[in-house]
Amino acid sequence: MMQAPSSHDINARIDSLCKPPGSLGELESIARKLCAIQGTLSPSVSPRRVVVFAADHGVTSEGVTAWPSEVTGLVTRVMQSGRTASGVFAEHLHCEYEVVDVGLRARLPASRIPGSAVQFIDAAGRRGTGNLRFAAAMTGEEFDHAWAVGSARADAANDDGCRLVIGGEMGIGNTTAASCLASLLAGVDVQDAVGRGAGLNDIGLAKKVRVVEDAIARVRALEPLDAQQIGCEVGGLEIVALSGFYARAAALGLVIILDGYIATSAALLADAIHPQTKLNMIAGHRSAEPGHQAALQQLWLSPVLDLGCRLGEGTGALAALPLVDLAAAMINGMATLAELESP
Ligand SMILES: Cc1cc2ncn([C@H]3O[C@H](COP(=O)(O)O)[C@@H](O)[C@H]3O)c2cc1C
Ligand SMILES: O=C(O)c1cccnc1
């Protein structure tokens, strides 16, 4: 087997291409990262797959979201048809799309929707989390189950030949869990960690801040806790599954494009448990949620895009994929200056 190129080799190759060194800016940084992750000067970004994990949240009973909990199942049903924003983006970008129920309150029909290429997996253990304001969201066994579900989906993607993966999530109320995780794992101030999620008004926002403050005070009183225990207290089943997905995908050497605030809270949890995980990540975008930038900084990541998006489902990561494709095309296809014939 050929030895993996050093960072010096990677820089030298990119600088040798037919352009002034550095002139392709961040595209060069992305190309460097692709090479470093895959240990090659010829990285590949296909086949690629989005895996969306869906689950419900007990904390929705606290009025922390503008939407009823039932919307989680309704949107996940639309995901099965491939017609959510992330499904449409994925199809457009030749990305396989998989949806995993890891804890929806109500089971969805598992039969494939006619005409849809979406793969659906019912892997739920517990159906919906506990209310994290007052009690642990899940037990240690439930955490392990959700983590293993995510990890198995990374194995499946790798076995199917994928070289790049994107994790997405669907779970009404999950920006509240993400805010708690960002605060506890990245030290983000509660006022900055809490945002409007899927469209909260001012009254809802103030309520959400109080709920997150209560949850954090409750968890602090239990300390010392390790990252897994923090995940049990304030996580979500889809967030923990995403963490398991990221940790395993990184261990397998896959490129991961990170999505928004919720995905990043899962990345914080994964990286706290398996600290090499962040090295395989490219941050697709900066979400409009105010805590996202600080959460990304904790992972030493800087986002490719800042489009004001705040949807989740993998959409922000997918939006960055065409640029990741260009970075791969650059290093795989460009001639070197040395190849030029002198006039
Ligand atoms: C129709 C619809 C589609 C979505 N797709 C993702 N989310 C996003 O919004 C939710 C988080 O926001 P909050 O914590 O404020 O409830 C998650 O389901 C997230 O994936 C959606 C939300 C809605 C309403
Ligand atoms: O940044 C995100 O992932 C996000 C923000 C708001 C609502 N849903 C997702």
From TrEMBL:
Its EC number is 2.4.2.21. The keyword ATP-binding does not apply. It holds the Pfam family DBI_PRT. This is Nicotinate-nucleotide--dimethylbenzimidazole phosphoribosyltransferase. GO terms for molecular function: nicotinate-nucleotide-dimethylbenzimidazole phosphoribosyltransferase activity. SUPFAM superfamilies: Nicotinate mononucleotide:5,6-dimethylbenzimidazole phosphoribosyltransferase (CobT). It is an enzyme of class 2 (transferase). Keywords: Cobalamin biosynthesis, Glycosyltransferase, Transferase. NCBIfam families: cobT_DBIPRT, PRK00105.1. Pathway: Nucleoside biosynthesis; alpha-ribazole biosynthesis; alpha-ribazole from 5,6-dimethylbenzimidazole: step 1/2. It catalyses: 5,6-dimethylbenzimidazole + nicotinate beta-D-ribonucleotide = alpha-ribazole 5'-phosphate + nicotinate + H(+). Belongs to the CobT family. Signal peptide: none annotated. The lineage of its organism: Bacteria, Pseudomonadati, Planctomycetota, Planctomycetia, Pirellulales. The keyword Manganese does not apply. One of its GO terms (biological process) is cobalamin biosynthetic process. It comes from the Bacteria.
